[in-house]
Design brief:
single chain, two-stranded antiparallel ribbon, about 180 residues, globular
């Protein structure tokens, strides 16, 4: 509930977690471990439940000894590793990820994509916002292209990606003709 829509409505049934931008929900002075505990408690998990999940979260994040350092000392990649690992292990019903994986290395991105697939098999709804067209076509069963705040295309991911490239071509053409 840190960010609100500028217009429209939506209804969420179940636990919603969102990885929208680096820094959302984490306190820079707290360690990674402290932020895991605090964030999970704020999302309704008991301390016992969080401690039970902690080994899996730490294993997924792969940030080693940095887990006990303040997150203000983390690189953007380490920050995303920790946030993604935490949220993926909270058993979300709805998981919103907005461009956050673009800072991770290819191996971590693949690990995240595999987690997305596992979450989907368990019935989790994933709202994945990205400019990575390969990720869209491989991860999504439905895509929506927004342009100027409006739906420009929706449906099969491959068709929507085609529409995206066509739109980018038209916009690039307009830019050149106006110069």
């Amino acid at each position: 509930r840190a960010l609100y829509p500028t217009s429209g409505e939506f209804t969420v049934v179940g636990r919603l977690v969102s990885l929208l931008e680096l820094g959302t929900g984490f306190h820079p002075e707290l360690t990674g471990r402290q932020n895991i505990l605090q964030s999970a408690r704020l999302l309704g998990l008991s301390e016992e439940d969080v401690r039970r999940r902690m080994p899996a979260i730490l294993d997924f994040a792969e940030i080693g000894e940095f887990i006990d350092r303040p997150v203000k000392q983390y690189s953007s990649g380490m920050f995303v590793r920790l946030a993604f690992a935490l949220f993926a292990h909270l058993d979300p019903d709805v998981y919103i990820v907005d461009e956050a994986l673009s800072v991770g290395d290819i191996f971590f991105q693949q690990k995240c994509f595999n987690t997305f697939r596992d979450l989907r098999r368990r019935g989790c709804t994933i709202l994945f916002v990205s400019h990575d067209m390969d990720a869209i076509t491989h991860l999504c069963d439905r895509a929506i292209l927004l342009s100027g705040g409006r739906v420009a295309s929706e449906g099969d991911p491959r068709a929507v990606v085609h529409d995206y490239f066509a739109l980018m071509g038209r916009l690039a053409g307009r830019g050149r003709s106006e110069q």
